Amino acid sequence: MIVVKLGGSVSETAGRIIWELKNSGKNILIVPGGWIFADMVRKLETDDESAHWMAIAGMNVYGYYLSRYAEVIEPENFDFDVRGVRILLPYILLRKHDDLPHSWEVTSDSIAVWVAEKIGAEDIVKVTDVDGVYMDGRLVESIAASELSRETCVDSYSPKLLREYGRDMFICNGLVEGRVKDYIMKGEAKGTRIIGR
C-alpha cells in the first residue's frame, strides 16, 4: 500500500490526480491536507490543543470534499484494509490513538508519515504545488531528513518522524499532469526524496 498525502494546494487538480492514482492499479490511502479549513483555524486566537483538533477536523472536511472522486474510510483502529484508492478521514483515528504533539509543528504531513508507519505502507508520497525541496534556489533530488534544518514544503515534525521510523517521503508536484502517475507507476519523477536518516 502507498500513502499519498494530498495537499489542499492541489485541490483544483485533485480529481485528475485521483484518477491517475486509480488507473495505477495500486492500493493507495489518501491522507487529505487541512486546506482552507486549517488556514481558517490558524487565523483564530485559540490554544494549541483546540487548534490541533480543529485542524484535524478540517482534514476530514477536505476528505469529504474529495469523496466525489473516491470512497472515504473513517476507521477507529489500524486494522483496516485498503483495496484500490480510499480517502482517510483521520479525526476518529487520532482521537483514539493520540500519539502526536498538539502544535502547529504537526500538520497533515506528519499525520501521513505516522499513518504510513502504523499500517506498514510501502511508500509515502506528498502531492503538493511545488516540485520539491529547494536549497539555495535549486531543486534537491535527495536529502536526508536530518539536513532539513529550516522550513521547507514539509512541516517541521515530519523529518523527526521520518528519522525515527527510518522511512522516506517523496515530494511530487500534483499541478503537473502525469508527474504523480510517473512516480506511482515507475518509482521515478521530478521531485525530492527525503531520506529517513
UniProtKB/TrEMBL annotation:
Domain Aspartate/glutamate/uridylate kinase: 1-150
Superkingdom of source: Archaea
One Gene Ontology term of the molecular function aspect: kinase activity
InterPro entries for this protein: AceGlu_kinase-like_sf (IPR036393), Asp/Glu/Uridylate_kinase (IPR001048), MfnE (IPR011375)
Signal peptide: none
Keyword annotations: Kinase, Transferase
Keyword Protein transport attributed: no
Protein name: Uridylate kinase
Taxonomic placement: Archaea, Methanobacteriati, Methanobacteriota, Archaeoglobi, Archaeoglobales
